[in-house]
Design goal:
homodimer; alpha+beta; BirA Bifunctional Protein, domain 2; Rossmann fold; Translation Initiation Factor IF3; 3 domains; eight-stranded mixed β-sheet; 14 helices; 27% strand; globular
Chain lengths: 479, 479
């Protein structure tokens, strides 16, 4: 933790991000190009995210399992679009146990193929369906330009893979999991994501249809934060996932896959962070409240520490994740900056005068200076802190939603579109032609992000070519 | 799930094991040689094991983090014994993103080297110590002879890596984590492991001293079930992990590492399983009690299901992991066999007569037939089931301990030793010479397993050469 100030967000957003990730000790660069080390503070955040997601997966009937890291090269080749999409990004094992392998193995970039091969073995009858399995793990994609959390060679994620008897069930599952992702991002991460359908050119390699949750970062760029894919019968046919239906007819299954990665940590940073550092949503924060004892003399120490320990025990008793910063080698001011950098939602200061008065000083991370400061009695503190954490969570979401809505535009023509995507998203009718999509990208670097789901009776003209259009899409520059 | 009986343990223990793993749906063979798929039931068991261990790690001050999967080949070469030990087992990535890599990367077989390189960056002062980090993840070792759970190319484990200011602290940590492993195995897995020190020839490649917990399987062979290593300053010197002490002197840190893998699932199977299948210790069982409704007519169904749902809710309310098997396409008898195969500790049968009488039938998995069966009132059932689960846990440990003690021998001479290790362990004085150790191995296939810690004022004669010895060791054939 350095005492230097971060490069301000307005000056250089990208540099601000990199500095913040390192100084808050979320992650560090690994000695292998493009790889990262997730430090304990970052991993604790991920553990909370995992728990919040895993609970939702289990509530919707899913179970976890683990499939191999290594996949025979030939498996990827069984699905044409899939291999075309992933082969440029593969890490290939050619030597094992000192000998050249007969068939090279790739480190999984995603697991549709190896899981498909197992499903074809396990699924025989309609009674075996649906299969609803999720896997928490690591994958490797050989990316050229990498950023901590956002795009690294190895990354941590979960990938759900399901198989169903009917197309409708598989489509429902795709949408159900998109809904789970949106609920997670909004209600746990306080990130007001927009769920929707990807364009054909932006969909997953091997999917019939991809859906996504798209988040707006503090620099207005979009971040794809989770995807759920309807795979049709593509992988079922490639891997021969067949079952006997109730009338004893052999049919191909319908499959889905859906994934959300540690990239969402990047989304949290870039949605909520400020020039003082990270701001973590209380529901996911590894430390929700930090207690900083304040004393000048040794005489003061004892009474202060006594109160601090009692407060800590009271907060822990109601399930608040709190920590006492009892370091003696640094000043309280240094500690304030340090925990602000790390984004702890609430700071509790306890000094000799607070002990005397039976009060504490509270400082909210989301409201700097006096606005976020209050002095409250120790009696009933735990309840007060719990309420305050709920309020911080709510206000982070409100602030991010307001920011997002302030930066979504409805340009009247293509000229205005080209202008607004420089500092925001354009929400416009689009004819769904890849030619118009490519033109926008070439002219502005903005891509289609998603077509929201709830567009009813829409009809308009494509913002690019003027032809008839039935849906609006978000155009934005993206990470 | 097949209705065929398992090959009896006495007939072919190894075949019994393989059949059991597949039929209980703990795991399956992967399409890549030597790799496994951990199926949902097996992964749920591992999740419970992870939670029980992780709680102990956190209680002893450890935090989790994640280090890269890929390690530069040159890193391994920095510690001489380490590279000699691991280089025959490496999986090597030579191609990334379609191009040949300048330096090959190995998939981590263990992470001392890459973690050591990060510690040298993070640790500057005595104030940064101790560093107490654990990682949950997968590693790859190119094994030639593989067995599901016991030895696979890729396996799941946790690896703890700690750095300390003094030798004593690092030695204490090594022993603390050995204690955590023993506590976990005994009190969660009901496996009466014996903790102790490995011989020099059996220690971890790069360690000064290795400790282990050794378990006796149902065929009397030993299974090394978790190891904790004192690494001295070997890795600190190889990776330059140095710190300024309180008097501003630059010193090398002292490090430890410790790991426990999914192999313990193999230990659970081979410690408790019988010819009907798996027997899971209640504390780790994904399903602690299965409820089987019994009815013949549609009329009976409704009243039975009502009671079943109420019982399920009551059990869940007190935290019992239970499941209702409401399949209609199979008979109750099939279900009984099925859940016996899967090792569910307790079966609850509820039929129309039980509904009438306000009772249920309970069947303990650990006591077959009448002995394990009881009929008890529905009132107060949840408390009764909780107590019964505690009792099953206790009785599994007692039974395994009795079996272990019945198969540990104190041979009077080398001839007797050669005999007893054919069907048990020999606990004998040993002069600690690798020559005697090698002789036993050559003559009997038995290896030294560990020297228990609490040997005080021991003095005797080596069972092999007759020279003076100060410690006893377990000799056993091992997995």
């Amino acid at each position: 933790m350095s005492e230097d100030k971060l490069t301000p967000r307005k000056e250089d957003f990208s540099e601000w991000y990199n500095q913040l990730v390192l100084r808050s000790e979320l992650a560090d660069y690994a000695p292998v190009r493009g790889c990262m080390v997730v430090r304990p503070y970052g991993w604790a955040l991920w553990e909370n995210m995992q728990a919040a997601l895993d609970r939702r997966f289990k509530e919707t009937g899913h179970v976890n399992a683990a499939f191999p890291l290594l996949i025979p090269m030939s498996f990827l080749e069984k699905e044409k679009e899939h291999v075309e999409g992933f082969s440029p990004e593969l890490a290939v094992v050619t030597i094992g146990g000192g000998e050249k392998l007969e068939e090279p193995l790739v480190i999984r970039p995603t697991s549709e193929t190896i899981i498909g091969s197992m499903y074809s073995k396990w699924i025989k009858s309609y009674r075996d369906l649906p299969v609803l399995i999720n896997q928490w793990g690591n994958v490797v994609r050989w990316e050229l330009r990498t950023r901590l959390f956002l795009r690294t060679l190895e990354f941590y994620w979960q990938e759900g893979h399901t198989a169903h008897a009917t197309e409708q069930e598989a489509r429902e599952e795709t949408m159900r999991m998109l809904g789970v992702y949106a609920d997670f991002a909004i209600n746990e991460g306080a990130i007001p994501v927009i769920p929707g359908v990807k364009s054909q050119s932006e969909k997953f390699a091997g999917a019939n249809m991809s859906t996504t949750i798209e988040a707006m970062m503090g620099d207005t760029r979009a971040l794809q934060s989770g995807t759920s894919h309807f795979l049709g019968q593509n992988f079922a046919k490639a891997f021969n996932i067949q079952f006997l239906d109730e009338s004893n007819t052999l049919k191909y299954a319908w499959t889905t896959s859906w994934g959300l990665s540690m990239r969402v940590i990047g989304a949290i940073i870039m949605t909520h962070g400020d020039d003082q550092g990270l701001i973590l949503p209380p529901r996911l924060a590894p430390i929700q409240a930090v207690i900083v004892p304040i004393f000048k003399s040794v005489a003061e120490t004892k009474t202060v520490i006594e109160t601090v320990k009692r407060v800590e025990a009271e907060l822990k008793a109601v399930g608040i994740r709190c920590k006492v910063d009892d370091r003696t080698e640094v000043t309280p001011g240094f500690k304030f900056n340090d925990w602000e950098m790390r984004g702890v939602p609430l700071r509790i200061e306890i000094g000799p005068k607070d002990v005397e008065k039976g009060s504490v000083a509270l400082a909210r991370r989301d409201k700097p200076g006096r606005e976020g400061k209050s002095f409250i009695p120790q009696a009933g503190l735990a309840g007060m802190v719990s309420n305050l954490l709920v309020d911080i969570q709510k206000s982070l979401l409100e602030r991010a939603t307001a920011f997002r809505d302030d930066h979504i535009f409805d340009p009247k023509d293509y000229t205005e579109l080209k202008d607004v995507v420089q500092n925001g998203w354009a929400y416009s009718y689009w004819c769904e032609s890849p030619i118009c999509e490519a033109k926008v990208k070439e002219d502005t670097k903005a891509t289609t992000r998603c077509m929201p789901l709830d567009q009813k009776d829409a009809h308009g003209k494509c913002i690019v070519c003027g032809e008839a259009a039935t849906r609006k899409v978000y155009f934005a520059r993206a990470y």
